Hints:
Elements: E1 5-9, E2 11-12, E3 19-20, H1 23-31, E4 35-38, H2 45-54, E5 57-60, H3 84-99, E6 104-107, H4 109-117, E7 122-123, H5 126-129, E8 148-152, H6 157-162, E9 166-169, E10 176-177, E11 184-189, E12 195-200, E13 206-209, H7 213-217, H8 222-235
Parallel strand pairs: 1-4, 1-5, 5-6, 6-13
Antiparallel strand pairs: 2-3, 7-10, 8-9, 8-11, 11-12, 12-13
Helix pairs in contact: 2-3, 3-4
The protein binds manganese (II) ion (MN).
Manganese (II) ion is lined by residues 137, 148, 171, 173, 190, 194, 196, 210.
Amino acid sequence: xxxxxxxxxxxxxxxxxxxxxxxxxxxxxxxxxxxxxxxxxxxxxxxxxxxxxxxxxxxxxxxxxxxxxxxxxxxxxxxxxxxxxxxxxxxxxxxxxxxxxxxxxxxxxxxxxxxxxxxxxxxxxxxxxxxxxxxxxxxxxxxxxxxxxxxxxxxxxxxxxxxxxxxxxxxxxxxxxxxxxxxxxxxxxxxxxxxxxxxxxxxxxxxxxxxxxxxxxxxxxxxxxxxxxxxxxxxxxx
Length: 238
Ligand SMILES: [Mn+2]
């Protein structure tokens, strides 16, 4: 049987000369039975259509911050590096996949581009733009260390996948989703209220996770492995 083809979005160096994807992402998809294919940017509309039609699912990896122009804001002083070309192509591709009801898994910044693609918005910096006391969401521990809990809504896709109402995740972000698209719902939050998981209300598999399950899948964390298995299963033509 042919493996489902999973389009993988890459990060870029700031001078836009080099595409980079952490191999943990590739390994997590291969281990779950998918065929990862790293995608280009600088796409014309017809290129977006072609890629969207040829992939069985889209996996949006982590990376730099997101261009606030995309949700109608100007840059906050605490906004980090952005690669607008990546944001624009990734979001165009997501819009097409949402339209065609194909599976999407977004991790870290991928959960934010996903929400923006569906009309939501985000904090440019959670520490500067929220009033409540926050956890340390930019952990200083190694990436496979699970530093804080996510509390999962019981009737959600994320709960059906993991079977857990609460589990530990790693945390490498200073941005997060703010207003969640009307097409989506929040399915997981941290104890401080930061949105950690969003998913489509209607589509079978559209999931955005604010953490990096590819790093914890590498050390055999069960919820992380189940997330990739469920994603690849959703991308598999039955
Ligand atoms: Mn976090």
